[in-house]
Amino acid sequence: MKIGKELSDVSMATLGFFRQIGVEEVSMPSRFVTEPRRSRPLIPPAQLAPPGPAGEPWDEGVLRQVRDRIVSIGLAPTTMHLVISGGILLGTAERDADVEEICHAIRMAARVGIRTLTYNFTALRASEGYFLQEGAGRGGATLRAFDAARVRHLPPLDGVGQHSRRQMWERLSYFLHATIPVAESVGVRLAAHPNDPPVAEFRGVAQPLSSLDDLRQLIELVDSPANATYIDTGVLTEMGADAPAVIRHFGQRGRIGMVHFRNVRVESPSERYTETFLDEGDCDMLACAQALHDVGYEGMVEPDHTPGIPGDTLDTWVGWAFAIGQIIALRGAIRSLAERERCGQGER
Fold this sequence. Notes:
Layout: E1 2-6, H1 12-20, E2 25-27, H2 60-72, E3 76-81, H3 86-90, H4 95-111, E4 116-120, E5 130-133, E6 143-147, H5 165-186, E7 189-193, E8 201-202, E9 205-206, H6 212-221, E10 227-232, H7 233-239, H8 243-251, E11 256-261, E12 263-268, E13 272-276, H9 285-294, E14 300-303, H10 317-347
Parallel strand pairs: 1-2, 1-14, 2-3, 3-4, 4-7, 7-10, 10-11, 11-14
Antiparallel strand pairs: 5-6, 6-13, 8-9, 12-13
């Protein structure tokens, strides 16, 4: 497994920092942004509508420029994020044109050397259920928590309406059947991130990937190595799932495309939880790393949702450095143990 990090810019300061602290592979942006960008806030803004159109189409020349700048400092750009439009998510008249644009982006990503494209399939994220616990973490760190009671009775939004689980799965199936054959033909994997927070419904809109059974169904829907999961140890723990066992389930089938490596403390599965530092939540991160090693996972392992550390930079470099250092240490320990076992067997 490779130490990874998603980038929002390709400033030399950002690239140099992540290279220095041990990052090996990155998820690269689609724009050539050379000024450092502030990290997303701990509490994301309320989502009042599905994503708009897929956005300004990718430009292959720009992607090559971004790629070459990343490579020049010794990092490997292997992953990018696809924005799934509201047209696809809600099945509007624009859906077919948006799917065709996605297929074009998949082919372009392959030409510039991208191995995995990640995506979220949710029309509305239940981010209004998040709240901050100021100073409640270790040493006064600020933690992000979620309580489904904060969003359970929120009404549907004008202009969005209500969308059933059956409708959302029909749209997800349509999307997969249109895009997975294209991805497979060019050697790119699409990795679906579970809905986070993993509530079953938000403001009348079903969340199709909010359970472990949903992730299994996703993989069964289109049987292709290009149809993969985006494992998030935090979300799996939020769901009440055994994250190491889930890694082994999908990893043994070759269906892990990307990994978010983070921890949470859960009060009630899918209902109430608090995001923590890697070493203090309910998820056994060593067991997760061991499972990734045992199934032969070779992709990125990336930290996500670092708690707020007083005095950190605007782009939370202190938090990222702490998490990445822990991931490097876990990987090193597992490799060392594996080598000792191998040498011991050789002596016998």
